[in-house]
Amino acid sequence: LQGTRGFYIDDKKIKNASLTTPSILETIKNIYTAQKSGCRYFIMEVSSHAIDQKRVEDIKFCLKVFTNISQDHLDYHKSMENYIKTKNSFFKDESLKLINKDDPYVKFNIKNAYTYGVENPATFQIMAYSIDKGISAVIRFANETADFHSTLIGLFNIYNLTAAIGAVKILEDIPLSKICQKVENFAGVSGRMEIISHDPLIIVDFAHTPDGMKKVFESFLGKEIVALFGAGGDRDRSKRAIMGKIASQFCKKIYITTDNPRSENPREIINDILAGILQKDKVVVIEDRKEAIKRAIKDLKKEEILLILGKGDEKYQDIGSKKVPFDDREISKNFVNSLINKD
């Protein structure tokens, strides 16, 4: 597995990621390493940058999976139109592909295309689902129907699991029911909706785009949500106010802080986020992310949910030209434990 989190063989991390999709030479080297280790499949994330810069042009994929398009990387692509066009270009050939039928932006070559969806008719169709206390869903493919269950949270994870089930079915043709049985054993990915504490509920997630944040918030509709987040420096500035606006629509309380400010002034990034929030009385600004996390946990009420967003399993902060050690999960766990020990 090669992607944002690095290069893995089984559960072992071989190396950290240089880029989500590295150079073609590094990818080929990783494929060779995986093959020598006995891997049958090499799963890789393909970024829009990599598509545009032709870093994957000569790779023959046995299956391409389209998940979704949401506002991101506009600092590079300059417009959503360019971003959408770049992503869709990856699916215009006749190779085997699996497409999220519910995404409004997707355009693809229907030759050798399978689809999956919840709302629209699809090859892999979710017939019914519940997202109360985890996930339960019924999936249909051709004349097969099966149900699957997971401890993962949120509608977006139904899409992710359906894509995974569909990919295995297409490539291996295992009975659908057998694939679905394996889903229950999957505990999720570190830093993606990772539960730090159950009482009170504290979750760390990588969501760092307007759509990503919205999907996380929608997983807790009817709950009292407290969010903590910032926005990356030297990246798409236009999304910052939108992130603030979305948070204000869903959240009871918002902590605005830093998140990889890079060469930008952290206060200016925070002000960009604040521009999208009308109800300033629900906002607490603490520039120091560690102090913001500690304050948010300390003030958290029993009935509230704290969502610490933006960094996921990252182990550093990009500040200026330096990578400063920093882990949302570690800081949160340590502070929760210190409060427990104090009691």
Describe the structure.
The protein has 2 domains: 182 residues, 3-Layer(aba) Sandwich (UDP-N-acetylmuramoyl-L-alanine:D-glutamate ligase), CATH 3.40.1190.10; 149 residues, Mur ligase, C-terminal domain (Protein-Tyrosine Phosphatase, Chain A), CATH 3.90.190.20. 33% of the residues lie in helices and 23% in strands. The strands form 4 sheets. It has a 6-stranded mixed beta sheet. The radius of gyration is 21 Å and the shape is globular. The mean pLDDT is 95.
The geometry reads as globular
What is the N-to-C order of secondary-structure elements (H for helix, E for strand)? EEEHHEHHEEEEEHHEEHEHEHEHEEEH
The termini sit apart by 43 Å
Please state the average pLDDT score. 95
CATH class of the largest domain equals: Alpha Beta
Q: Which structural class do the helices and strands define? A: alpha/beta
Fourth-level CATH superfamily of the largest domain = Mur-like, catalytic domain
- Number of discrete helical segments: 11
If classified by CATH, what would the architecture of the largest domain be?
A: 3-Layer(aba) Sandwich
How many domains make up the coordinates?
A: 2
Radius of gyration: 21 Å
- Percent of residues in helical segments? 25-40%
Q: How do the strands of the widest beta sheet line up side by side?
A: 4-5-6-7-8-9
Largest beta-sheet details = 6 strands, mixed
Number of strands: 17
Fraction in beta strands: 15-25%
CATH-assigned fold name of the largest domain: UDP-N-acetylmuramoyl-L-alanine:D-glutamate ligase
Point out poorly predicted stretches.
none
